[in-house]
Design brief:
Length: about 500
Amino acid sequence: MTHVVTNPYLPSWEYVPDGEPHVFGSRVYLYGSHDKANSDRFCVQDYTVWSAPVHDLSDWKCHGVTYRKDQDPRSKPGKPVDYYAPDCVRGNDGRYYLYYCAMGPNTKNFGPMSVAVSDDPGGPFEYLGDIQYPDGTPVLKYLTNDPAVLNDDGRIWLYYGWGLARDFRSKLFAPLYNFVQSKLFGRSISEIKATKPSILSCAVVELEADMMTVKTEPKAVLDSKTTALKSSTLYHHAFYEAPSIRKIGDTYYLVYSSGENNELAYATSRYPDHDFVYRGVIISNSDLGYQGNTVPKAPAGTIHGGIENINGQWYVFYHRCTNNTDYSRQACAEPITILPDGSIPQVEITTQGLSGRPIPAAGSFPAAICCNLTTGKKMKLGLGKPQTKPRITEKGGELCVADMADGTEAGYKYFEFQKVTGLRVTYRGTGRGALEVRSEDKLLGNISIIPNVNWTGSEETIAFPTGVHALYLRYRGSGTVDFLGLEFRTERQLALWADSGTNISGG
């Protein structure tokens, strides 16, 4: 029996952002941070690892808690550290090394990077040590954030760094640049001036066989500060954070979050430690820039991920923002294409995700698998507890699209329609009006909405066009609506899929 996978591809209750996928043996393993629903800060949970067979990316297995916060020596009773975005590599000794940063309210930001080790890619991991110079001094040059690691035919390269979002790289900020950096990052002004080209860079360093001692002084490979001028090619795509490294053939691909803070850009080089050149954007978690789009198709927020070849197909892994905050992020992925010239065209965010093909429009699906959620305007993410609407959120233990006001639209890409004759939605709220059912720009029908305290169903006979189409549900009316699920009506298609042994369900 085959399960139809959707975005997000992990269970609806799971929040694993900053995903780094790696194929080890016959499985792909996902290493990431660990958020939770309705959180008020990043990465509040212990690390966990998920994996799936390379031949079935719908069958994800949780390996449980793989690295506890109390295993890090900086954690104190009642004051645990928060584990930020990790990466994992198989060492030359056959063991698996997990690189991470311990941050959060109970530790000093941009302190030492650390590494834990396991005999199994699914963990559990044990603390090994901090990244250090040969004399044991911790490596703190540049800003020690978001480690990424590569085993390059036996040579171990560690990448890391942090920069500034584009909004902060302004003429008003420039006169106070060094002073503000010293206050924000805990670095002396003399150190800031001495670090070239800037502490706001992506750095790289080679590691010794012990996997934690550096061979040389770290050096910058992508810079945030010197690309601040609007005349620069990289003004809109300069390095911000979230480096991820892969070697494809004889080319190194450095994927990173740009200063736009919603897109994964990439640079390439023939060398692991210099001459990286910006090549383009792979994905935006709000589809900004895709085919010239300038309106966010979903709440735009932090993004971090990597690319991986799984069973002959390349994918980009990323995360979406839920609860209208940066602190509750869920894992998503899309197939990508690497062209003969080495470039990667930007792909759109979809509901079908890892499946790489349209979803049969038959049976029931959670409303929260929508890839688009928009009011047609920019939706700012809240700091701390979210206040803005609409949002994908948990209410009463169920993930739903909450607080849809007049003009809010949830979009799904893509469904394959074969003689679908009706649609039923499950909803509740104060709303009175209708859900407009659209296929691309064509209005197909309306589903009535009336005030209901409890979840209730409403359906309408609708003749959907045959073939592959996007589905949009736009609320028109007063009050607000929480949207839980949708169900397509077609007895013939349900019978056909039942005979084929396919289990039709969402995320």
